[in-house]
Design brief:
- The chain is an all-alpha fold.
- It has three domains: 5-74, DnaJ domain (Helix Hairpins), CATH 1.10.287.110; 78-173; 187-235, no CATH class.
- The chain has nine helices and two strands; from the N terminus they run H-H-H-H-H-E-E-H-H-H-H.
- It has helices spanning 5-9, 17-30, 41-58, 61-74, 78-100, 129-173, 184-205, 208-220, 222-235, and strands at residues 109-111, 124-126.
- Strands 1-2 form a two-stranded antiparallel sheet.
Length: 236
């Protein structure tokens, strides 16, 4: 499977049918050949063809389910990757030990059960140069899949953030006020900030210069003087 229909429509795999349809209409309008310059029409036609193909599959629940399954089968999970990587590292260590302890590139028998679990032959086999190259190739493939997984995760995070920001901006444009619910962590941060502010003010109050400055300000500023007296009487 060379084409990723979700990438073509610029959506994530959890997109709702409404999002799929909206993305299709937006892209179909953007790349419609009639709206392109003459030099870009041919390229736009090819892109639009892929967009139509992607929408035909993702807009059909049955086709989408089959496609998602195929896409899942092509993607290696993080757990599978870690297991394969650990097996590969173990084989590399065994091969290096054997290579250091023998001459003329003759390898002793090692356990190949972790390398080829589908084999019904004796798991102890003679490792030749072809097997060694196969292990190196597998290592390169694992590294490629790891980078691919990392790229997909970064791309998914970027898309989710973009959709979230676009949704929030759309609500703001419609006049909605966005109010985020504060968590317990936010309240704790607020309390700590208040406590630290009070401690800093108490410390500053002990400094003679600052202490005298506020005393003079209190005595000379009538508005401040009356305000503090009012608050003091209120509490008393």
């Amino acid at each position: 499977m060379n084409k990723n229909y979700y990438d073509i429509l610029q959506i994530n795999q959890n997109a709702s049918p409404e999002i799929i349809e909206k993305a299709y209409k937006t892209l179909a309008k953007k790349y419609h050949p009639d709206l392109q310059e003459e030099s870009n029409k041919k390229e736009a036609e090819e892109i639009l063809k892929e967009i139509n193909e992607a929408y035909e599959v993702l807009s059909n629940p049955d086709k989408k389910a089959l496609y998602d399954q195929d896409l899942k089968n092509e993607t290696i999970s993080q757990e599978d990757y870690e297991e394969m990587y650990a097996q590969n590292e173990k084989l590399k260590e065994e091969l290096n030990n054997l290579k250091n302890n023998t001459n003329n590139n003759q390898y002793s028998n090692i356990n190949l059960n972790s390398f080829n679990t589908s084999s019904t032959e004796n798991p102890k086999a003679n490792i030749n140069q072809e097997n060694f190259d196969a292990i190196k190739k597998e290592e390169q493939e694992l590294e490629y899949k790891r980078r691919q997984l990392q790229y997909q995760e970064q791309l998914e995070q970027a898309r989710q953030k973009a959709y979230h920001d676009a949704y929030i901006q759309d609500l703001k444009n419609r006049g909605y006020r966005i109010k985020y619910k504060k968590s317990l962590k936010d309240y704790i941060k607020g309390i700590i900030t208040i406590i630290l502010t009070i401690i800093i003010l108490i410390i500053l109050w002990q400094i003679p210069v600052i202490h005298n400055f506020f005393i003079n300000l209190y005595q000379e500023n009538e508005i401040l003087h009356n305000t503090i007296n009012f608050i003091n009487n209120l509490f008393n």
